[in-house]
Structure formats: structure tokens, C-alpha cells
């Protein structure tokens, strides 16, 4: 009898949070949720999960979607490579697997955008096949259970975690076991653990050794980098001017206002010069309309929105779009933040 697994799952059944993807074993819905939850908070993922399933209720319908249409629906959560891989994956499933997710682990890993965690999640939740599905929460729980003190990014750490996952998950429901580990890491076995409330405290080697606070051995966090992001807000009647910037180090495919990205604050003269060089836009009498703070992973951004009393375009490959048209283009949440601060058009977003 697996006493650890049973105690963990009993706790989960009484204390788990209700999410729509936990109420289904449909591989398409589970896959969508797992892709969304990469780099996205649950409240945001819930909103996009519902919207995507409403527009593309089946895998076949998603596979038939136009890329720009799907990317527009994805707007606001970034990491557009996830969306592109989803389309490629859906198309490959329809073309090569009769529109079905394969149960085989190796075949899942061959699909675009599916790595070891997503493949494991699909096998556990949809097919009941015990397979390591290890995210940050699960890493933390299992490292503490065994007092795994190898460096968190080392091969020895990962190998030991996978072995522990399989050993402790024997003879219990694979889907509930996987969900319970994640839930325990989210609710109880957090970075600052609440050990007194833990249903498997008696099994925890780190608790016995009083090493919970130091396990797992944390990697050094990447230091935050500050950016100043200058946007030129150009308006013609109810239309605004948008461009794509493939030279930018992130959000290359998003439609944004003409922009200049800098690691330091720029003078008006420097900004004008860079808009001429990068966009062929000669902006005269620049003034600041507003500014918003934004974060993209480790980047801390001060977005400064500029307007100009007169602009001339030597060259620029952009489009003029009204707020309704803009909803069909992939953009960034920083643009949505800016638009919401503009009183004349805020109601459209």
C-alpha cells in the first residue's frame, strides 16, 4: 500500500482548487491549459483558456486557424512562440495522428512545443500513465521529501527527482497524484513552507533534519535589467500607427507603436535621432503623454509614451488601425496598458 500517495491524494480531494482543466480528461483541453500555464499566472490563463476554447472548441478547428487570427486571440500574454507551436502541433496531429494525441511518451515529445513536462502531464491526466511531470512546485515538494541537496539544475538533482516521482506515485491514480503534488507545492510546500499543515509531513526528510528552508538549493536568480521603452503614439482620426520590430530582442512579432528601446534614459534629441534612424520617422516637438511600468520576465520596463505635433515619414512599414481592427492583430500587454490610459479610446479595450 502506498501510504504517502493515499495521504497526499486524500488531502488533495478535500483542499484542491477547482479549475476547468481539472474537470476533464480531454487531451486537447488539458494540452491547451498546460501551454497557457507556462509563464502565465492562473487568473490570466483562465481567461484565455475560455476564450480559445470558445473560438476553437476542437483540435481540428484550431489546426485550420489562420496564424494571425490565433495570435490576435493570444494578445496580452506574450511568448508568441507558444501560440505558433500550438498551431504547428495541432496541424501535425491532424496530418499524422488522425487528430488524436498519441499515448506514447516518445511520440508526444516529437510534437512541436511539447517537452517532458507537458508530455508527462498529458500521460498522467488523460491516459492514467504514471510519468514524471515536474514543474517548480513538484521539484520543491519532492526535493524536500527526500532532502535532495544536489544543485537544482544539476543532472543528479533531476535524476533523483524523477526516481522519487515514480517511486512515490506507484499504485495510486496517476492524474490525481500529479495534481496533488502541484497543489501541495502551490498551497503548503511553498518557498516559505507551512509544514504544520502538510499532509505528508511525517514522510518529509527535510522536515526531520530541519533543512526545509534550504532545500532545494536555489539557483542564483538573474538580476533584473531596467529598460526605458519609448513609444511614439501617432493618431490619424480614430486610427493609430503600429509596426513590427524584428530587431528587438523580445516581442519581435507583436504589433506595437513605433518604439525605441534603451538601457538608459534618453534625451529628447537622442529619441528623435533614434526614431529617424530606426523608423525613418522625423518627429518634431516631442512631448510625453503618459508612462506605464511593465515587466517581461527579468526585464523591468519604464514605457514612456510620446506624441509629436508634426511627423514626416521617410520610410516605415507600418499600418494604421482603429481599436476594433487592432483586436485582430497580435500585440503586447504593454500596448493594452497604454491604450487603456488614453481617455478617448479606453472603452474599446
User: Helix and strand string, N-terminal first?
Assistant: HHHHHHHHHHHHEEEEHEEEHH
Beta-sheet strand percentage? 15-25%
Record field, number of beta strands: 7
Tell me the count of domains. 2
Mean residue pLDDT: 90
Would you identify the CATH architecture of the largest domain?
Orthogonal Bundle
Give the terminus-to-terminus CA distance.
55 Å
**Contiguous helical run count:** 15
Morphology call: globular
The major sheet is characterized as: 4 strands, mixed
Name of the CATH first level of the largest domain: Mainly Alpha
Low-confidence spans: 345-349
At the fold tier of CATH, the topology name of the largest domain is: Endonuclease III, domain 1
Q: What does this protein structure show overall?
A:
There is one protein chain. With 349 residues, the protein is α+β, with helices and mostly antiparallel strands. The protein folds into 2 domains: 3-214, Hypothetical protein, domain 2 (Endonuclease III, domain 1), CATH 1.10.340; 225-348, Nucleoside Triphosphate Pyrophosphohydrolase (Alpha-Beta Complex), CATH 3.90.79.10. The chain is 44% helix and 15% strand. It has 15 helices and 7 strands. The radius of gyration is 24 Å and the shape is globular. Mean pLDDT is 90; it is low at 345-349.
Q: How would you describe this structure in keywords?
A:
Nucleoside Triphosphate Pyrophosphohydrolase, Endonuclease III, domain 1, alpha+beta, three-stranded antiparallel beta sheet
